[in-house]
Amino acid sequence: MESELHAALLDQGPDAVIFAGTDGIITYWNEAAERIFGHTVTAAMGQNLDIIIPEQYRAAHWTGFDRALAAGDTKYRGQSLATRSVRADGEQIYVELSFGIIKDAAGAAIGAIATARDITERFNADREMRRKLREFEKAAAG
Fold it and tell me: Residue 36 and residue 117: Cα distance in Å, rounded?
């Protein structure tokens, strides 16, 4: 019963939950990940994380991924980061990500988990507000 509850929490939660092994291959992808990133569960499973990482950020991502796995922790533990991502249709979106390294019973890193939520609308609204504020400040100084 408890494992069924845990599975339901992950599968039906409001945020995307993605797990990739140490090789960067996706082995867990929930319904929210499907909704946010546009890849079905079937299409995402067994794929490399590159399916959601814009090409220009991949090198930096893999450097950080490998560093975190080697350390057994991420410097972003307990934090959420706003970053760009890419959907199955190629649309670039902004997501808020949280990361964690998952370890086996012996303490060895076996992969990484990420939770994500789409913040594109909020990010764009904030950017527009900052643009208007700069214009206002320029006009007031002018």
Answer: 7
State how far the alpha carbon of 64 is from the alpha carbons of 15, 24, 25, 26, in Å. 22, 12, 16, 17
Q: Rounded to the nearest 5°, which phi and psi values hold at 86?
A: -135, 140
Structure tokens at 109: 């890193």
Q: Say what the pTM is.
A: 0.86
The one-letter amino acid code at 76 reads Y
Say if residue 37 is exposed, middle or buried (CB neighbours under 10 Å; 0-12, 13-18, 19+): buried
Closest to 110 measured CA to CA, from 118, 120, 100: 100
CATH architecture of 2-141: 2-Layer Sandwich (3.30)
pLDDT, tens only, 7-17: 888 888 899 99
* Pairing outcome for strands 26-29 and 81-86: unpaired
Name residue 42's amino acid: T
